[in-house]
Amino acid sequence: MALWPLESTLIRHIPDSGQSVFAKGGVETSSRFNNGASGGSSGTLWVSYFTAIVDTTITKLAMNALANAAVSTTLARIALFTVASTTDDSVTKVAQTANDTTIGASAYSLYERVLSTVGGFPSSYSLVAGTRYALGYLHVATTVPDMSGANILAQSTPPAPSRLIDGQTDIAASYAVASLNTHYFGVWLMARQ
């Protein structure tokens, strides 16, 4: 049975190399090696899908800013979603960080934030190996930071590794797959204990 190329790369790379967050009980949406950058635009929610390869409990979410630090940020947050199924990439938010306008304020920096319990969300979340999830990142600002990530070939071939939606002022409780567009760039996002 052939695996989706990104997932097969991760499964081969992660357990053997020890270089991935997976090796330390966390998750990431793509490899930290050979990453590119994208600036995106204010109000774009980036959704990067992944399949957990280990059972783990996470308490922190992170993104990595590259060049062009954010200017005049009014909202910046990261969220964890469950995914409806392998045939429907609709997502439901199950955890999130607080709005933190310092995210992206400095170029070439990792921004890791704890999960916020505001709104009834948990301070930790247990991921189950073999289950598909997504991490989302939203930045609303005059200038958004460049984000680490990877270019994706055949981005619309199921399962789509990355989707986005424009015009967001905050991360909604859920998104139907029909409202999310596949994209050729997948933002690197991380979750860990």
Q: What is the distance, rounded to the nearest whole angstrom, between the alpha carbons of the first and last residues?
A: 32 Å
Shape: globular
Number of helices: 1
Which topology does CATH recognise? Answer: Jelly Rolls
Helix/strand/pairing category: mainly beta
Q: Quick check: average pLDDT?
A: 86
The gyration radius over C-alpha positions equals 15 Å
Task: State the total count of DSSP E strands.
Answer: 16
Helix content percent band: under 10%
Order of helices and strands: HEEEEEEEEEEEEEEEE
Q: Name the strands of the widest sheet in spatial order.
A: 13-7-6-10-3-12-14
Query: What's the level 1 CATH class?
Result: Mainly Beta
Question: How many strands, what sense, and barrel or not for the largest sheet?
Answer: 7 strands, antiparallel
CATH architectural type = Sandwich
How would you characterize the overall build of this protein?
- This protein is 7% helix and 42% strand.
- It has 1 helix and 16 strands.
- A 7-stranded antiparallel beta sheet has the order 13-7-6-10-3-12-14, with no helix packed on it. Strands 1-16-5-8 form a 4-stranded antiparallel beta sheet, with no helix packed on it.
- A hairpin with a 7-residue loop joins β6 (71-83) and β7.
- Residues 1-17 have low confidence and may be disordered.
Write the layout of secondary structure elements.
Blueprint: H1 5-17, E1 27-28, E2 36-38, E3 45-51, E4 56-58, E5 60-65, E6 71-83, E7 91-96, E8 109-114, E9 125-127, E10 132-143, E11 147-151, E12 162-165, E13 174-175, E14 181-182, E15 185-187, E16 189-192
Antiparallel strand pairs: 1-16, 2-11, 3-10, 3-12, 4-9, 5-8, 5-16, 6-7, 6-10, 7-13, 11-15, 12-14
